[in-house]
Structure of Glutamine--fructose-6-phosphate aminotransferase [isomerizing]:
Amino acid sequence: GKGEFDHFMLKEIHEQPTSLAQALEGRIDPENERIALSDFEPGTFADVESVQFIACGTSYHAALYGSLALNQAGIRSTALLANEYSVSAPPVDDDTLVVAVTQSGETADTLNALRQANAEGATTVTVTNVVGSTAAREADQALFIRAGPEIGVAATKTFSSQAVMLLLLGQCIAADHHGEPPADLEALLPELAAMPDAIDGLLETSEADALAEQYAHSQSYFFIGRGLGFSVALEGALKFKEITYEHAEGFASGELKHGPLALVTPETPVFAVFTGEEDEKTLKNAEEAQTRGAPVIAVCPDDHRAVDVADEHLSIPETAPDLAGLLANVQLQLVSYYAADLLDRPIDKPRNLAKSVTVE
Ligand code: M6R
C-alpha cells in the first residue's frame, strides 16, 4: 500500500534512498576503489569501440545521462529513441554494444530496437527493473536496477537507479576499453556511497511544496540545463507535463536563445539545473529569460553563485559532478508532484497513459 503517503508517486520518491542503496549493494567498494558488477567480469567490454543506448520516455533520459557520462569518459556513445531506431539507427558491428534501458522490460518500441540490434550482430545488454522480463530474456546480458516495484505511472525511483547503474556500467566499459579505471573513479565512489544519505537529507529539507504553490498557476514551465543537466531538464519537463497536464518543455540552456526565448514571459517560470558543467553559461542563459520577466528557479548547492541571481532556489547537497543532476532531479520530481497535487490531478494514473506501453 501507500502507507503514510497520499500517492504511490510520493512514496516512491521517498523510497529513493533505499532503492539506490539496494542498487549499489555489493557493486561498489569505495575503500578498494572498485566497481564489481557480478555478471560482468573485468575485461568483458575490452573490445567495445562504441555504445548505443536505446530507450523511451524517462528511460531515454536516463540513457542520455549514461551516454553523456560515457562520452566524457572517452568512449564514443549515443542515446537513441527506441521508436526512431528502425528508421535512424547508426550502423552497428560486432564492436558495438547496444544497451536497452527499460524499467519494465516490456516496452514494445524498445524490444523492437533490441531485436534489430541483436539481428545486426551487436552485443546487447539490458538495464531493467524486472527479472524475467522480455528484455532481460532477449538481451545477451541483463543488469538489474533492483528498485523494487514502481506503481505510479510516472517513473521516479527507477530513473535514479537506472542513471546510477548506467554510470557504473559506463565506468566498467571505460576501464576495460582504456585498460585502467577512469581518473575520476576514486572521487566518484564515496559520493555514490553517500547518495542515499544525500537524498534523505534533501527530502527532509526540500521546499519544493512551497515553490510549487507559488507557481502552480503559470502558463508554461521551462527547464534548462547543460550536459548531464540537459537530460535532467528533459526529465523534469516530462514529469511535469505528464502529471500536471500543464505545458512544460526542457531545453539545452544554450538553445533557449535559438527560438524558445520567444515564449518566455513573466508567466513562464524557468527551472535552471546547475551541474558544474559550464555553469556560468547556463547562468547567463537563465538571466536572458529573467530579463524578459520570467522567474528563475536555480537548482544548485547553497553556495552556488546562481543563488544570488535567481528569484528562487531549490537546494541540492554538494556531490561529485556526475551525480549533481540526479539530486537536482529529485527536487524537480517533488515540484511536479506538489504542483499536480494542488491542481488535483490523478497523480498515480495520469489520463491517456499506461505504466507499460506494449504497443508500437
Ligand atoms: O518501462 P520503460 O522504462 O521501457 O518505459 C518507458 C516509458 O514509457 C516510461 O519511462 C514513461 O516515459 C514514464 N511513464 C514517464 O514517467
Q: What stands out?
A: Residues 227 and 277 are 6 Å apart (CA to CA). The two ends are 31 Å apart (CA to CA). The pocket of 5-amino-5-deoxy-1-O-phosphono-D-mannitol is lined by residues 56-59, 102-104, 107, 110, 153-155, 238, 242, 356-357 (CB under 6 Å).
